Amino acid sequence: MLANAFVEDGLYDYSLNVYDKVKPKIILTSMKREVYKKKGDLVSMINQHLDALEFRETEILMAQTFLQNSLGYDDEKVE
User: Fold this and answer.
1) Total Cβ atoms within 10 A of residue 50
2) Contact yes or no for 49/71 (Cβ under 8 A)
3) Contacts (Cβ under 8 Å, ≥6 apart) of 52
4) Looking at residue 37, what is its pLDDT?
5) pLDDT tens digit sequence for 22-38
6) How far does CA 62 lie from the centroid of its chain?
């Protein structure tokens, strides 16, 4: 709740610091990647997806979908 309050106020770095102190890490990767997305830090957002794969390989489909949606990739437009 504290991390979400920081996000609502645009204090993304404070939110990330809260998440860094909480466990289990797998749950936090999804929360942190949303903060990085709102912050506009795409490199860190992508790294969070890759970190999630370290915990569970089944995260690959979710990572692919999220990245496609977040980065504006569209299979229909690719020839």
Assistant:
1) 11
2) no
3) 26, 29, 30, 33, 59, 62, 63
4) 86
5) 766 666 777 888 889 88
6) 11
